[in-house]
Amino acid sequence: MNLKKVILIQELNLGHPLKSYLIIGFALYAELTNQHLKRRVEIMAVREIRTGIYSVGAIDWDRRLFDELIPLPDGTSYNSYLIKGSEKIALIDTVDPTKEYELIENLKKLNITDIDYVIANHAEQDHSGTIPKILDVYPLAKVVTNPKCKDMLKDLLLIPDDKFVTINDKDTITLGNKTLEFILAPWVHWPETMFTYLREDRILFTCDFLGSHLASSDLYGADEAKVYESAKRYYAEIMMPFRISIKKHLERIKDLDIEIVATSHGPLYQKPEFILNAYKDWISDDVKNEVIIPYISMHGSTRKMVEYFVDALIKRSITVKPFNLTRTDIGELAIALVDAATIVIASPTVLVGPHPTTVYATYLVNALRPKLKYASVIGSYGWGSRMLEHLKGMLTNLKIEFIEPVIVKGHPKEEDYRALDRLADDILQKHKEHGVISP
What we know:
It is a single chain. By secondary structure, the chain is of the alpha/beta class. It has three domains: 1-43, no CATH class; 46-283, Ribonuclease Z/Hydroxyacylglutathione hydrolase-like (Metallo-beta-lactamase, Chain A), CATH 3.60.15; 288-434, 3-Layer(aba) Sandwich (Rossmann fold), CATH 3.40.50.360. The protein has helices at residues 19-43, 100-109, 125-128, 131-137, 147-157, 224-239, 243-253, 272-283, 301-315, 330-337, 356-368, 387-393, 414-434; strands at 47-50, 53-55, 58-60, 65-66, 70-71, 76-78, 81-84, 89-92, 117-119, 142-145, 164-166, 172-174, 179-184, 194-198, 203-207, 260-263, 288-295, 319-324, 340-350, 353-354, 374-381, 401-402, 406-409. α6 (224-239) packs across α8 and α7 packs antiparallel against α8. The N and C termini lie far apart (72 Å).
């Protein structure tokens, strides 16, 4: 029997003829909900990575937005790892609080009655949010983390001070036949982030670093093209602002003997060089012969300018990627920013400033700090505009050279199209000077 609808009636007397139907409806709804939860738990099965090392986290197939900001077209996972040493047991990170049931069930499947250490690589709640529940179920467990993360966990989750064991960079904890080494990695994402390296098994648990928002039943990334795309989106949306810090931390781990990279989101990597080489490319100062055009148009004038300008760039053998901001997945724009040499923001004028949607996109570009080299603005106005000053003032995080803009009054005219050709020529020349196009 499939329950199609539950009718909720606020108050019914015990003798009311609908009372029994209401009770049956609630019971059916509860049973179906429990069956759904059990199916979800079975999907995120416990997987053994190596002897005594298990993936016990949860897959969130249906989540479509992260931090109420970041689109998740492919869902995500919250990876948690159990390590059984000959003397002690450690749990590396937990899961988002919405998935605590699945983590607890997975630990039950392994017959875990005691946990000695909960390693907190990061304080953000999609990693740490189930720590209070773990401490409730396993009251003898201690939270192992660095001083900054300890303070944040106390603030965010109200964990008592006496539940912590505080470690510093390069400190170790032994589980008997397995050794955990801690590597502080501030500002690969948050200031308290750290990695955990399992020496004997050569596994680096990297927290958010090198991860991807990708819900997959594969423990390892079998579809490399899909994993690469998801990891690049993840880098663009989350890691790109910390590009300089990431360079330093890649240098710090280069001499580690790493056989498996175990991230907090997405599939693991059996070929660490796959994701490490990708990151080296993304964080480098190298840019490509690409122009990104985030745009919006209210009455068609700016759209006509964009269409003409796109063709002008194509004729000059420049790769161009226009993004209509009324339809664009903002994550796709972020991905394009990873490699592009130039951004041209296109907007109509609203009350002498840029369109509010353009403001939103420009704010994100500035916050993400891509390695852009050049920028310009095109657009239109009716009676007056300070759009250029507003947009330039919003890009102060970027080390870019501004190229003369094309901002026109009303519908674009012949001289305006000639100005767009001039802008395309200027970009072509700049790309040649920078070496992304052969002279």
